[in-house]
């Protein structure tokens, strides 16, 4: 299958959000903060802790959401803005994935990828825990 695509900033930001929220370390941290907030809410309701502890939990949860949902996707997009402005031709076949634009081309065997999954707008293709690229799904 071969198709041409160009990235759209709002969709790329959403794809980056999916990337960050799907990371195992972020999931564990979010679960821990949520459990901590629930315990703090129960203890606050039972008058076992002061309201500052409950407020701290709420602030921590809010900061995590702010960082992983807004700040980090925008930082990554800003750092790689030139990459997201190019027009690409993606090729998927039994051997692997190919990606080309006016500056060059690159191909990868499926064995090179450590993980891949499909989200609403993208194919997320991972070389390792921090190395990845997105291929936009055909319209």
TrEMBL record:
Transmembrane segments: 28-46, 52-72
Alphabetic keyword roster: Membrane, Transmembrane, Transmembrane helix
Lineage: superkingdom: Bacteria
Protein name, per record: YcxB family protein
Organism encoding this protein: Arachidicoccus ginsenosidivorans
Organism placement in taxonomy: Bacteria, Pseudomonadati, Bacteroidota, Chitinophagia, Chitinophagales
């Amino acid at each position: 299958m071969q198709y041409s695509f160009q990235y759209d900033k709002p969709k790329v930001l959403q794809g980056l959000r999916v990337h960050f929220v799907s990371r195992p370390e972020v999931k564990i941290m979010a679960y821990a903060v949520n459990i901590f907030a629930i315990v703090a809410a129960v203890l606050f309701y039972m008058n076992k802790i002061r309201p500052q502890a409950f407020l701290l939990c709420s602030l921590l949860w809010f900061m995590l959401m702010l960082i992983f949902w807004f700040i980090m996707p925008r930082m990554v997009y800003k750092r790689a803005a030139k990459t997201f402005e190019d027009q690409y031709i993606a090729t998927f076949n039994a051997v692997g994935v190919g990606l080309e634009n006016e500056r060059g081309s690159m191909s990868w065997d499926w064995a090179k990828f450590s993980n891949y999954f499909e989200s609403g707008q993208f194919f997320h293709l991972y070389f390792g825990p921090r190395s990845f690229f997105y291929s936009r799904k055909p319209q």
